[in-house]
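Try it yourself: sequence plus zinc ion, in.
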Amino acid sequence: MELVLLALMGWLVGALVNRMADNLPAQRSFLSAPQCPYCGTLRPVGDQLAVLRFLLRRGYCSNCHAPIGLRAPLVEIANASAYVFLWTRYGATLQWLLLAIYTTIFLLVLVTDWEHRLVFNVVILPAIVFAVLASPFSNLGWQRALLGGVGAFVIVFAIYIFSLVFSRVRRIEIAGGAFGQGDVTLATFVGIVTGFPAVFAAIVYAILLGGVGAILVLAYELLMHRRLALTATIPYAPFFCIAGWVVMVFPNGIWG
Ligand SMILES: [Zn+2]
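Structure, out:
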């Protein structure tokens, strides 16, 4: 029973994530009602949970019949499953609550960066402050959390500055090599929630995942369009989110 309630709660919070991911890039107020991106019609109340919308309307707008992307139902399902999964691992603890909150933040950042290449300061900066304030109550303790945050900031900021200088000197856009400012703040958040020294594993995984992603994109471009898209940049933030989440939830390794 409690797992059903948890899934329901995760589902509703997932719907909020979708709302923010729609509203932030459009510079609408945080929680304004969802609307169809094609005809602008406000979604009817019964349509606001994307999973239901998909089941009832097969993913089409009720007004203009434009297709609705898969992102919204996937986010709702992912958030709900994560809340339940974390509960089976941590039970009714403060640690569960913190990891559930961080999971939702990771999801929101992943979606906005994937879709718009943007990590919103209005999301990540309060998240950093919250994670610092909550760190004494986490399993990590505040020392490891703060050390992790500072360590991640220093490393990723150094890479950011280095690639900035390098691209100025060489007058080229580095293909996928450059981190953006959003990656620096996101990495700091990852550092606080994974702690020292686990954060270094998270950074390495994120860069490896980003590299694999870049190779796949290049291979795809080469096969489909017979050209090498060397100027394409990698959105690193989604990989930081995935790697950060995995290391946060499995601090001793997935098989540990
Ligand atoms: Zn529509």
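One thing you can check immediately is this: Residues 36, 38-39, 41, 61, 63-64, 66 surround zinc ion (CB under 6 Å).
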